[in-house]
Amino acid sequence: MDGTPTTEDPIAIFEAWMAEAAKTEPNDANAVCLATATPDGVPSARMVLLKGVDARGFVFYTNLESRKGAELAANPNAALCFHWKTLARSVRVEGAVERVTDAEADAYYASRARTSRLGAWASKQSRPLESRFALEKAVAEYGLKYAVGEIPRPPHWSGFRVLPRRIELWRDMPFRLHERRVFHREGTGWRIETLYP
Ligand SMILES: Cc1cc2nc3c(=O)[nH]c(=O)nc-3n(C[C@H](O)[C@H](O)[C@H](O)COP(=O)(O)O)c2cc1C
């Protein structure tokens, strides 16, 4: 078993760090590198935006038919890595993923700008694009289709929640002797250990 039991809550600390980063980062403090892997362990990584966090985990939204969507369907495990340059801090999260509920995805989709909602219909994310014109034409066509009334959430667009089993809070310290505090999930609580930098 790693570490010793703690009453500290790494998600509460993450939220406090994110609130600080939102004030200091020039843009997209919620940008995070998401790593997925094929069932035989070949990794891939890309940026996404964190759109929710609570005691259950870390939520992002995407096209389910994208490369990341296909990898998560076949291997529902992911890692996240945040880095805030202005704070010289980083957070790493690892865990299994689950799909958010349809109600959660509907609520977030409805909050997005109209053009973003149309883009979710028009983009065959991660598949070859024949021309920029083809994409703009698809956006225009969906704009006409949904000119009146609500734009429904596409069935291929939803969110994932990373259920953290390990959270590392990293802080820059003098002489590269950085602080690394790792929280391991244990039941409903956490165990903590510190690592050499
Ligand atoms: C700052 C930033 C934020 C992004 N946020 C998202 C996002 O929330 N969801 C998403 O699907 N793609 C997002 N993207 C695009 C992805 O990085 C990526 O290009 C796309 O999702 C396709 O990835 P895939 O082919 O590995 O599935 C973002 C890119 C950047 C640079």
Q: Could you characterize what this model shows?
A:
The protein is an alpha+beta fold and 197 residues long. It has a single domain (4-112, 154-194), classed as Roll (Pnp Oxidase, Chain A). The protein is 28% helix and 38% strand. The protein has helices at 10-24, 67-74, 102-111, 114-122, 132-145, and strands at 4-6, 31-37, 43-49, 52-54, 57-63, 77-84, 89-99, 157-171, 179-186, 189-194. Strands 1, 2, 3, 4, 5, 6, 7, 8, 9 and 10 form a ten-stranded antiparallel β-sheet that branches. Strand 4 and strand 5 (57-63) form a beta hairpin. Helix 4 crosses helix 5 (132-145). The chain is elongated. Residues 28, 31, 44, 46-49, 60-63, 66-68, 125-126 line the site of flavin mononucleotide (FMN).
Name a few traits of the molecule.
197 residues; Pnp Oxidase, Chain A; binds flavin mononucleotide
Task: Please write out the topology.
Elements: E1 4-6, H1 10-24, E2 31-37, E3 43-49, E4 52-54, E5 57-63, H2 67-74, E6 77-84, E7 89-99, H3 102-111, H4 114-122, H5 132-145, E8 157-171, E9 179-186, E10 189-194
Antiparallel strand pairs: 1-10, 2-3, 2-6, 4-5, 5-8, 6-7, 7-8, 8-9, 9-10
The chain binds flavin mononucleotide (FMN).
Flavin mononucleotide binds near residues 61, 66 and 68.
